[in-house]
Amino acid sequence: MGHHLKRVVSPKSWGIARKSDKFVTKTSPGPHNKNALPIVVWARDQMGIVRNMKEVKHVLRARDIIVNGRPVRHSDMGIGIFDIVSIPKSGKHYRILRDKKGRHVSIPIDEEAASSRLVKITNKTIVKGGKIQLNLRDGSNVITDQQYKSGDSIVLSLKDGEKNKIVGHFPFQTGNMAMIIGGKHSGIVGRVTECITVPGSLPNRVILKDEQSGETFETIEEYVVMVGRESPAIDRWGIEE
Asked: Does the keyword RNA-binding apply (predicted)?
């Protein structure tokens, strides 16, 4: 069972039934982290696009599932928050987000919205030639000669001929809009009102205001992803209760 794990211990973020079958596919090493959702679980358990592993493999051989502009080849490849999943034959596109309970949800988007993806910069390094490598939250990286800082978000094109070209930038700073992707405020979009640097090993804190409810709340910097400036660049960021 090296490629499987027991459903009862699968990450809660997957949002799948835990007692239907004993085992479920384990995510392979790759994008995001161990909580990434295997594409087979997304297609079968969440979306109902296929009924079983045989159908998943058939769909993948036909290059019928595209993640971030590339056909998925392996059923255990993981997807995670802000990934763009497209089904070319049906013309449907989805952005993977998280709801208020921290579960992965698939938000329908149009073709234009599916032509780019948002990613958070976790850190950066200088590479050969003096260029800057931006290391991104999903495990990928991009080379640039422009200045960005850790905590910022960038928007990468998924269009043919300009894949991974930076086409947008949302700085991590007060006054800009951010989405919370973890903790008890998961799924909320708010305006950053204060960034608090905490000395020592404790995480930095961020205070935001939910402009819909007027509530002010605090979270850790790790859970904050910038999604806009004056207004959110993402049209829909949650699901109806």
From this structure: yes
CB neighbour burial string for 222-237, b if at least 16 within 10 angstroms, e if fewer:
bbbbbbbbeebbbeeb
Q: Is 124 helix (H, G, I), strand (E, B) or coil?
A: strand
Q: Which fold has domain 5-109?
A: 3.10.290
| For the chain, counts of helices (H) and of strands (E) | 2, 19
Q: How is residue 11 written in tokens? A: 């990450």
Residues of the chain with CATH 3.10.290.10: 5-109
What does the pLDDT look like over 126-168, one tens digit per residue?
998 889 999 999 999 999 999 999 999 999 999 999 999 999 9
Decide: 88 and 66 in contact? Cβ < 8 Å.
yes
Three-state secondary structure call for residue 134? strand
pTM for this model (two decimals): 0.84
Average pLDDT over the chain, rounded to an integer: 86
